[in-house]
Amino acid sequence: xxxxxxxxxxxxxxxxxxxxxxxxxxxxxxxxxxxxxxxxxxxxxxxxxxxxxxxxxxxxxxxxxxxxxxxxxxxxxxxxxxxxxxxxxxxxxxxxxxxxxxxxxxxxxxxxxxxxxxxxxxxxxxxxxxxxxxxxxxxxxxxxxxxxxxxxxxxxxxxxxxxxxxxxxxxxxxxxxxxxxxxxxxxxxxxxxxxxxxxxxxxxxxxxxxxxxxxxxxxxxxx
Length: 223
What we know:
With 223 residues, the protein is an alpha/beta fold.
């Protein structure tokens, strides 16, 4: 078992705040600004399966895509609709099928609709917002399993997506083991701080004992 595979079960329980702090400490981007929980359960964790949309070609229109047939169970569908909020690229049919097929959730640089169906299916949806107007004849799929943008973050296929009530973070696959190791260290430090403070230590003492500031401090660029 490689290092990442060994650490993933524990990493799946980390909060986005802990992962974001680890990304900061390693001087990596990853916190997707503006993308929040819309419907379904409030937890996503899994590798990205990416889809990028563009304006519809009026001369030879494409489709909004049947990519879900090729999305593996456990993957997170990441849809880049260029931040458009005037038309949706995800609706109730996809939420119900995604839930049935064991897809981990959907994250959208854009909007979704039919959120009642996602809630009913317990299917996690994160997006810029919700809007009822269809993307059909307005946008079409331009690329599948290619790099996309999620808010202000680049997402490559296979990058790890984590989401909770606080938002969405993207962990580059090539650095995932390192990021999660740092995040788990931060989690352990925070737990030790709380326990020490509840046992009578001052907050300053508890933080010093846990070396919390050292763990949070970004690494030197020349390190």
